[in-house]
Amino acid sequence: MTTLTPILTRNWDQPDSFTRVAYEREGGYQALRTALGMEPDAIVQAVKDSGLRGRGGAGFPTGMKWGFLPPASPNPRYLVVNADESEPGTCKDIPLMMANPHVLVEGIVISSFAIKSNHAFIYVRGEVLHVVRRLQQAVAEAYEAGYLGRNILGSGFDLDLVVHTGAGAYICGEETALLDSLEGFRGQPRLKPPFPAVAGLYGGPTVINNVESIASVPSIVQNGSDWFAAMGTEKSQGYGIFSLSGHVTRPGQYEAPLGITLRELLEMAGGVRAGHRLKFWTPGGSSTPIFTDEHLDVPLDFESVGAAGSMLGTRALQIFDETTCVVRAVLRWSEFYAHESCGKCTPCREGTYWYKQMLKRLEAGQGEEADLETLLDLSDNILGRSFCALGDGATSPVVSSIKLFRDEYLKHFEQGGCPFDHAKSTVWAEGGSR
Fold first, then answer.
1. DSSP β-ladder status, 316-321 and 239-246
2. CB neighbours of 107 closer than 8 A, spacing ≥ 6?
3. How confident is the model at residue 249 (pLDDT cuts 50, 70, 90)?
4. Beta-bridge partners for 119
5. Which residues, in sequence order, are bridge partners of residue 123?
6. What residues contact 219, with CB distance under 8 A and at least 6 apart?
7. Distance between CA 335 and CA 333 in Å, rounded?
8. End-to-end alpha-carbon separation of the chain, Å?
């Protein structure tokens, strides 16, 4: 498990990796030629057989999601790629699109052919203008080469691909809020059912997949389902990009089979920054319950992380050493969720606001132990009662931090303030790695 699997990332070290010429030099678009010679249903079955699960956090089987499309509908089918990556700590799709946008474009063409869609969209954050330009360039190059447009490679298949920029709302990472935004409305979650597979974009059957999920499709078509399924674990198959950030010697993207452990990843990343030790970390971004050094050997797959009390999520491994105040970290995350709540439902709108207010007081040492029970009670009233997963995600760091670091919360009360020197927790302090 200590061997990396550079597949999506294999050409990132090349200065022209983002160009069509460089992508074709590494065998790019050969999978598309293979796919266009297959029956669409055979591609769907191959993705099912591979065991590919959604790489956007939920881990739902990709091929099964494709299979939910109704066989007959008066409306066109659509493929929408969710590239609205914006959760704190999550940073895999942006570098993937920056360094290798053509693997995403090829994945979109193959996936659209498989689900019989002639219209595809990439919904990307407007703030990452450099990535938007890379995507636009890649799409233009694909049109020029005949990989997009009419009668692709003489197959008779037509596909138009649109790069759509969002306006900077975290809520638009929720798939139905993304669809509303794409249609020109305010980004807010829709009531389900109907689900997007039945009535999605413009009322048509719609598949919504994460960037990494779609980018993984060409390798499955080219190398076969068994090749992909041979990596990872029995129920969490394949490879994925693990994003290490924070107090680590060599932060970055590490592409490895699912089931690798943080201990193994840290060994490859040079460990926690020199002179310090691991205190806590997130296995899947800020919306997943935090882990401690006791969880270093938990296999990073959907089942093992879930059994240990958290979620694999987007594999955003934020590393925090002993200089970090966990109360302050949870406050910062809670401020983010309060700011990004769309306000549509009461539990999330009000709950995240009170999270922020209470944690500010607790971090300043102005609370009391009873406030911790109030926070947990508040969490119970948010979890499972919100319109979408934003509210649920906001509860994860709060509940898990109180469970694992209750004594640290109490120390704030006892000392009348935060006992940590926050200057020491920055990665620049004390000769940090970055």
1. parallel
2. 214, 215, 216, 217, 218
3. very high
4. 78, 160
5. 82, 164
6. 7, 8, 31, 227, 228
7. 5
8. 27
Strands 206-210 and 78-83: parallel
Domain limits, the chain: 20-229, 239-321, 326-425
DSSP state of 18: T
Q: What is the pLDDT of residues 314-331, one digit of tens each?
A: 999 999 999 999 999 999
As a whole number of angstroms, the distance between CA 343 and CA 97 comes to 31
Confirm if 322 and 277 have CB atoms less than 8 A apart: yes
- According to CATH, the superfamily of the domain at 20-229 is NADH-ubiquinone oxidoreductase 51kDa subunit (3.40.50.11540)
CATH code: domain 326-425 is 1.20.1440.230
Q: What angle do CA 389, 253, 136 make, to 5 degrees?
A: 75
Q: Taking the complete model, does pTM exceed 0.85, yes or no?
A: yes
Structure tokens at 371: 């406030």
Instruction: Name the residue type at position 103.
Output: V
Task: Please name the residue that has the structure tokens 């209470």.
Answer: 358
**Parallel, antiparallel, or unpaired: how do β-strands 291-292 and 278-282 relate?**
antiparallel
Structure tokens at 387: 């319109």
* CATH top-level class of 239-321: alpha beta
- Residue-wise pLDDT for 114-166, tens only, equals 999 999 999 999 999 999 999 999 999 999 999 999 999 999 999 999 999 99
351, two tokens? 């709950």
**Alpha helices, DSSP H, located in 288-429:** 302-307, 326-340, 346-363, 370-382, 389-404, 406-415
* Count of beta carbons in the 10 Å neighbourhood of residue 154: 8
